[in-house]
Amino acid sequence: MEGIENLIKELAYPRDIAIFSHRNPDGDALGSTMALKLYFEKMGHTAQIIFPSEFPSIYSFLPKTDDVVIFDFEKERSIDIIEHAEMMFFLDFSSLDRIDKIGELIIDKKVTKVHIDHHIDPEPIANYVLSDTTSSSTSELVFEFLSMIDGNKEMDIDIAKCLMTGLITDTGSFRYSTTSKTFEVASKLMKYDLDLNFIQNKIHNSLSEKQIRILGHALNKRLEIIPEFYTGIITLTRKDYQDFDIQRGDTEGLVNYILMMNNIKLAALITEQPTIVKLSLRSKGDISVQKLARDNFKGGGHKNAAGGHAYAKLESVVNKFKSILPFYIRT
After folding, report:
1. Is 140 helix (H, G, I), strand (E, B) or coil?
2. The dihedral of CA 240, 241, 247, 251: what is its sign?
C-alpha cells in the first residue's frame, strides 16, 4: 500500500471511522468489515459499519453484528455517521455504485479514504489503496493490512473468527481462489484457538426448513440443463418468491448446487425481483463469468464468481443469457 506510513500516522490517535461494503453483503463483506471494526475499537477508535442492505442471518454468530447499520432501514443514522466520519474505509467492492445511494453521499466528502478490495478494475475512489486480484478475499487483504499497521498486535479470537469466515465463504471452504498466502493466513488465524467446525457449521449447516424446501423446488422444478454448453440455469419467478415467502438471503449459495454436476461448467441463478432481474453466476476452469456479466448484464465480480442485473422481463433475460453462451464457452 503506497503511503502506508502516512496512514499509520493518521491512525495514531482516536478517529471516527466509517466502514462500508456492498449491497447484499456476503460472508467476506461482513467478515472483513467486522474484523476491521473490532480491531480499530481495540486501537481506541470509534468505528461503525454501514451496509446498503441487510445481511443473511447465518452470519449473526459473528460478534457485534447488531451494531451494523443498514442504510435501507436507518437512513438518518447512516447520514449522521457519514457526516461525522473523519476516515472512511471501503471494503470488498470496486466502485461506489456498488453501495448505491451511499456512494452519492460520500463521493465529495473531504476525508481520508482507504480502499481494500480484491475485485478487478478498482475505481480511483480513495487516498490509500490495497488492491490485489490474486487474493482469495478481502478478509485476506484485511489481515495483510493489519499486519502493515502494527503487526497484528491487537488480533484476538473474535477478529480471527471474522476473518476466517470471510476466507471460508469466498473460497468455498478453500476449494477455489486459493494461493499459498491464503493458507498461510488461515494458519496464522488458527493460532487464536478458533473452533473451525463451529464456524463451518454456522455457515453451511444453518439452513431453515423454508430454505431447504426452496432448494428442493429450485432443483426439481426450476433447473434447466443446456448440455451442449455445459450450463445449468435455475430461474425463480415472482410467484416463487410469493409462494415460498423468499426473503433476502434465502437463496444464498443456491447457484453452487448446479456446479456439483460433473458435466456442468457454468451455473446461473436468475431471479425475478420486483423491479429488476438479477443473475448470480459461477463457473469452473477458464470460463470467465466476470466478463460475461460485465459485457452483458452491467455486472462484475471474479473470474469464476460474478453477478449482474437487467431491467427487463425474466423471459427475455433468460433468452439473452442462452443466446450469448456460444461466445463464452468452447464446445
Report:
1. helix
2. positive
For 81-85, 114-118, 120-124, which range has the lowest pLDDT when averaged over its residues? 120-124
Q: Taking Cα atoms as reference points, which of 243, 254, 241, 314 lies closest to residue 280?
A: 254
3-state DSSP assignment of residue 46: strand
Question: Cα 303–307–311 angle (5° rounding)?
Answer: 145
- Supply the pLDDT for residue 124: 95
Instruction: Enter the DSSP assignment of 129.
Output: E
Smallest CA-to-CA distance from 329 within 277, 274, 284, 269 is with 284
Dihedral in degrees, nearest 10, Cα atoms 23, 311, 270, 21? -10
DSSP letter (8 states) at residue 313: -
Average pLDDT value for residue range 209-234: 97
Work out whether strand 231-236 and strand 266-272 pair parallel, antiparallel, or are unpaired. parallel
Task: Tell me what the mean pLDDT of segment 287-303 comes to.
Answer: 92
**For the chain, what is the mean pLDDT?**
95
Question: Hey, CA dihedral for 256, 257, 263, 268, is it positive or negative?
Answer: negative
For the chain, strand residue ranges (E) read 16-20, 46-51, 69-70, 87-91, 112-117, 128-131, 223-226, 231-236, 266-272, 277-283, 300-301, 305-310
pLDDT at 168: 96
- Which strands make up the sheet holding 277-283, listed edge to edge? 223-226, 231-236, 266-272, 277-283, 305-310, 300-301
| Cα 154 off chain centre by | 25
d(CA 89, CA 122): 14
Q: Which residue has the cell 461506489?
A: 96
Report the run of H or E that residue 139 belongs to, with start and end.
helix 138-150
Q: Cell for 169?
A: 465463504
- pLDDT tens by residue, 49-107: 999 999 988 999 999 999 999 999 999 999 999 999 999 999 999 999 999 999 999 99
The DSSP output letter for 247 is -
Alpha helices in 90-137 (DSSP H): 101-106
Domains in the chain with CATH codes: 4-204 (3.90.1640.10), 209-327 (3.10.310.30)
